[in-house]
Amino acid sequence: MASKVIYTVVAVAGIAVASGAAWWLQKPKAPDSAAGNGAGAGKPVTVEAAKVELARLSDDTQAVGSLRSRRGVVLRPEVSGRITQLNFTDGQRVRKGQVLVQFDDQLPLAQVQQSQAELSIARANQKRNQELVAQNFISQRSLDESAANLQVAEAKLSLAQATAARLKILAPFDGIAGIRLVNVGDYLKDGADIVNIEDIEAIFVDFRLPERFQNKVKRGQTAMLDIDALPGRKYTAQIQAIDPLINADGRSIGI
């Protein structure tokens, strides 16, 4: 009885082994990648990541410009005359309204005095004629003539004073005087150059950019400035004006 039980167990075990072998042989093979993953299981995969952020794209450009003062003028006389005074030195700082050049004004001042005397007489005549007309001693025509003479006298005085004033040249604004081109005693014709005055409290840079920047450049934008005479130093500038006219030859705009 014992031997029969042993044979039965062995037979059952044999059947189980045979069934397992048959199942294993019939099982589909896994892809090579699966085999590879199985061999390297447990190793992390390296992945690069970056945080998404909002940023403004810049369209930078470079240009060569020219420096100039904020304001500049060349002093020139409006009338001819001889210089009697130069009240400044080369490179001196001058103030607005300061008398820089004085021309000979003896004759114009004499004309002013003469016109003042004539005006006084004309006023006196007009006042007297008004009283006489009120008393019917003279006609209205005489009063009108004296009134016209008074207007002529006033005009002559204004002309003489204006001529005398033009013999003084004043500084139009605060600035630095350049190198003068004349000396005391020189006789100048109207329009002759005397000296330049420059206001350098602020410096402007004139330059040009391609026309594609016309709608990109705005007033108030910041520009970085390098000056050849001052190497290694950076300056910050601000856009003040944009020329709306595009240059037909170079297709550029002035800044």
What is this structure's SSE topology?
Elements: H1 2-26, H2 32-39, E1 66-75, E2 81-86, E3 93-94, E4 99-103, H3 106-134, H4 140-165, E5 168-170, E6 175-177, E7 187-188, E8 195-206, E9 208-210, E10 222-227, E11 230-238, E12 252-254
Antiparallel strand pairs: 1-8, 2-4, 2-7, 3-6, 4-5, 6-8, 9-12, 10-11
Helix pairs in contact: 3-4
Could you explain how this protein is built, in words?
The chain has helices at 2-26, 32-39, 106-134, 140-165; strands spanning 66-75, 81-86, 93-94, 99-103, 168-170, 175-177, 187-188, 195-206, 208-210, 222-227, 230-238, 252-254. The protein has a four-stranded antiparallel β-sheet, with no helix packed on it. Helix 3 (106-134) packs antiparallel against helix 4 (140-165). The protein is of the alpha+beta class. A hairpin with a 2-residue loop joins strand 10 (222-227) and strand 11. The chain is elongated. The model is unreliable at 1-23 (pLDDT under 50). Among the domains are: 74-104 and 169-200, Beta Barrel (OB fold (Dihydrolipoamide Acetyltransferase, E2P)), CATH 2.40.50; 105-166, Orthogonal Bundle (Helix Hairpins), CATH 1.10.287.470; 207-255, no CATH class.
